[in-house]
């Protein structure tokens, strides 16, 4: 993909986070200038390395309007900021709705006032809910199970309404399992608390946390563990560049899965970690985790057709190698 952003400014809301920092680096790699809007609640200032940072909390409407007005020369907004820990969403839905839905509404209004007309929104496969239809097509009914998925779906609907009434152009990217890290080792996954399989299993392999738990070994899958579609974070970042290019070509509205189309089981992840690190991953079988679906993987065809996007970094070995490169340096283990 050779798309040249020619110095264009792009607002990246949540640019200090895991996916956001990779999006910023990729934008800069294509000659653009990413301007991060982030409240640094879960993002990290040290991850903002490719453009300026505006400390903005979307829940504060006047702050959001002011920041949008200041950067109204941007060609697009990328919105990635949100609460993401599924378990916390079940215990504290008020916080989730305020941060995700009210925040997105304020951003949409800030964009409208500043005449910022292009939006790339990070949604999730968690908006689909329980289904036996695999791979998942974008036309699949969306009936999310978790508060997290419900907030993302509410935002998808808001964006569709703003498109219809106010002419907002949008690309909603429904990510599958973001994973891996930039090859440079400069940025990677740094959640606190960490709940995701790969960083937890790497920490277990590094001897930093004792045995990990594999949630559910009695699923109806070949090895009894859940199946997910792991997509490298730099592929996700590339999908944003494809969307920017398509805005320029006249795309006005699309919902697109961003996955590989390939399902990988939890035990296959552990096996690959053992191969890459040369270390065993100590684990215990544990009961199923509330809310986990048996298998989730994307139909990636629409991403190819609409965005001309194909995953190039998402071989499982590369995902684990890049994640290990980042984490082992951070933890100071070899
Ligand atoms: N998982 C696990 N042990 C952990 C964390 C996750 O067995 O400590 C499993 C989880 O139950 C699911 C898969 O790993 O089957 C992927 O979970 P993750 O939280 O990484 O992503 P999700 O698919 O929930 O977005």
Q: How would you summarize the topology of this molecule?
A:
Layout: E1 9-13, H1 18-29, E2 33-38, E3 53-55, H2 61-70, E4 76-79, H3 86-91, H4 93-114, E5 118-124, H5 147-166, E6 169-175, E7 177-179, H6 197-205, E8 212-215, E9 227-228, E10 230-232, H7 233-248, E11 253-258, E12 264-265, H8 266-277, E13 283-286, H9 301-307, H10 316-331
Helix pairs in contact: 1-7, 2-4, 4-5, 6-8, 6-10, 8-10
Could you walk me through the main structural features you see in this protein, from its secondary elements to its overall organization?
- The chain is of the alpha/beta class.
- The chain has two domains: 9-180 and 231-259 and 302-307, 3-Layer(aba) Sandwich (Rossmann fold), CATH 3.40.50; 197-227 and 262-299 and 315-331, Alpha-Beta Complex (UDP-galactose 4-epimerase, domain 1), CATH 3.90.25.
- The protein has helices spanning 18-29, 61-70, 86-91, 93-114, 147-166, 197-205, 233-248, 266-277, 301-307, 316-331; strands spanning 9-13, 33-38, 53-55, 76-79, 118-124, 169-175, 177-179, 212-215, 227-228, 230-232, 253-258, 264-265, 283-286.
- β1, α1 (18-29) and β2 form a beta-alpha-beta unit.
- α2 runs parallel beside α4 (93-114) and α6 (197-205) packs across α8.
- The protein is globular, with a radius of gyration of 19 Å.
């Amino acid at each position: 993909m050779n798309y040249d952003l020619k110095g264009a400014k792009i607002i990246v809301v949540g640019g200090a986070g895991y996916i956001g920092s990779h999006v910023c680096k990729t934008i800069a790699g294509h000659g653009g200038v990413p301007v991060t809007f982030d409240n640094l609640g879960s993002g990290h200032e040290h991850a903002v390395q490719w453009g300026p940072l505006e400390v903005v909390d979307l829940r504060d409407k006047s702050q959001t309007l002011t920041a949008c007005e200041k950067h109204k020369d941007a060609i697009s907004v990328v919105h990635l900021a949100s609460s993401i820990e599924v378990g916390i969403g079940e215990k504290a839905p008020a916080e989730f709705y305020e941060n995700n839905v009210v925040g997105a509404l304020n951003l949409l209004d800030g964009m409208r006032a500043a005449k910022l007309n292009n939006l790339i929104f990070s949604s999730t496969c968690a908006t689909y809910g329980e289904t036996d239809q695999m791979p998942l097509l974008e036309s699949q009914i969306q009936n999310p199970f978790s508060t997290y998925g419900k907030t993302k779906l509410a935002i998808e609907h808001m964006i569709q309404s703003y498109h219809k009434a106010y002419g907002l152009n949008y690309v909603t990217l429904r990510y599958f399992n973001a994973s891996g890290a930039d090859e440079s080792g400069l940025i990677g996954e740094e959640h606190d608390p960490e709940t995701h399989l790969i960083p937890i299993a790497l920490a277990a392999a590094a001897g930093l946390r004792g045995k990990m738990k594999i949630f559910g070994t009695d699923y109806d899958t070949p090895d009894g563990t859940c199946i997910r579609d792991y997509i490298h974070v730099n592929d996700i970042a590339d999908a944003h560049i494809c969307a920017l290019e398509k805005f320029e070509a006249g795309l006005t509205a699309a919902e697109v899965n961003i996955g590989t189309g390939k399902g990988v089981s939890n035990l296959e992840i552990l096996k690959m970690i053992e191969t890459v690190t040369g270390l065993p991953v100590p684990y215990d079988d544990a009961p199923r985790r509330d809310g986990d679906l048996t298998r989730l993987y994307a139909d990636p065809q629409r991403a190819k057709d609409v965005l001309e996007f194909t995953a190039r970094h998402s071989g499982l070995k590369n995902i684990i190698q890049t994640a290990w490169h980042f984490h082992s340096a951070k933890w100071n283990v070899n």
